[in-house]
Amino acid sequence: MRKQRFLYLVGSCRVEYGEVRIADLAMQTVAIEHETAEKVLQVRELLGLATKKNTNYQRKLKQIMDRDPSIR
Q1: Which of 11, 15, 19, 40 sits 20 to 30 Å CA-CA off 55?
Q2: Residue 48: φ, ψ to 5°
Q3: Please, which residues bridge with residue 25 across strands?
Q4: Residues 11, 46: contact at Cβ < 8 Å?
């Protein structure tokens, strides 16, 4: 597994964009952090992510690995 991370400050929120590669599979991740949920939701909207499902990172990696046992 290889992951590249890019850190940004958007408004008052810390935003991490990541590119994860496992064998020939790739996915992008975004994490938005702030003390208040309101600020996180505002930045989520600003970035055009309001309609995207919030997915647990470890759960998603497990789903990928379960689909393709050759990458273990």
Answers
A1: 11
A2: 75, 25
A3: 22
A4: yes
pLDDT digits (tens, 9 = 90+) for 29-65: 999 999 999 999 999 999 999 999 888 888 888 887 7
Q: In this structure, what token pair is assigned to residue 6?
A: 């890019």
Provide the 3-class DSSP secondary structure of residue 67: helix
Alpha carbon distance 49, 1 (integer Å):
25
What is the distance between the alpha carbons of residues 26 and 68, in angstroms, rounded to a whole number?
13
Q: Are 64 and 28 in contact (CB under 8 A)?
A: no
